Amino acid sequence: MITIAIDAMGGDHGLEVTIPASVNVVDSHLQVKLILVGREAQIRERLDQHRCANRDRISVQSASEIVAMDDPPAFSIRKKKDSSMRVAVNLVKDGIADACVSAGNTGALMGTAKFVLGTIRGIDRPAICGILPRISGSAYVLDLGANVDVSPEILFQFGIMGSQLIESYEGRSSPTVGLLNIGVEEGKGDEAIKAAAELFKNSSLNYVGYVEADHIFMGDTDLIVCDGVLGNVALKASEGVAQFIMSVIKQEFTSSAFNKLSALVSRPTLNAVKSRLDHRRYNGATLMGLNAVVVKSHGGTDTVGFGCAIEYAVKSAGSGLVERISQRIAARMETETIRESVSAAQADRESPGVTSCSTQE
User: Fold this and answer.
1) Most buried in the list 30, 215, 258, 289, measured by CB within 10 Å?
2) β-strands 223-225, 138-142: how paired?
3) What's the pLDDT tens digit per position in 320-359?
């Protein structure tokens, strides 16, 4: 049985979305228990409005405060210690829940989760990893907005974490990894991304080189690594383009009587297109690098999208994701320690007596 703590009050729509989504998940997944965190009376009132065949697998944990979508992260950590977000994360820390899901303030969730749960040893910064649809299958992208200015080493850590996520979540060994850049040629990009590329080349990761933004949707690279600015722009642009395409299709098929008739004939195809472009199916991004599974849902999502985020958390919690990342990072740290020792020994052999001479008068 996997237990997920739900920040029931978070997001743009709060209980209006989180309660029906939770009911749908427990009714369709027999091995899942949910703890709804928030204002108890309101949660129970909403629950009573929904028919739930497995109500015994939904419990309620009281929390008196709510983190607003515009609350600064530091303020929410210091001043709102009984918020639904904080209490949900605490349940994970205390071992009562295996993971938590929130549609609340992204910065506050990242800050709170990092403060309460801590990061995996060897990880400098957590990152947000999400899934985007492509012409065949899907692509994993990180970071999607948590880190603005990152070093080559941090980009490489993103690659390790993302690779382990794909291996754990999909059972796909040695996933391909690419660095998002302004071109695929070796000389393109700033110095940080060039240095990151060297780290990837000299690692055991299945690195395929630089990729451009169109490759996210039309390529075949499993994991695309970038800083939070590029990742967030790609994410929001893709959502906007998908909505734009569906709006144009709707406008054209309703512009005349003939087009409306054509829409009726084309309905199966249109429904298939709509399903493939539906970003709600990919809702839910893992906060990678933490000592537990925390999933961020889009703040403005609906019942379908939030349900997908819960299911994503269930699968991630059951895959041993955190343990696998910890092992991979520990192995890298050990390898780097050995390399540094070998390099130091070689330097000593090449410059005998330098140290002793330098200490003499």
Assistant:
1) 289
2) parallel
3) 778 877 887 777 666 655 554 555 556 666 665 544 333 3
